[in-house]
Amino acid sequence: MMESKIIRITKEFKFEAAHALKDYDGLCKNIHGHSYEFKVTIAGRPITDKNSPKLGMVMDFGDLKKIVREEIVDKFDHSLVLYNLMPQKLIQQLKGQFERIIITDYNPTSERMLIDFADRIKKRLPENIVLKYMLLRETVTSYAEWYADDQE
Question: How many domains does the chain have?
Answer without folding.
Answer: 1
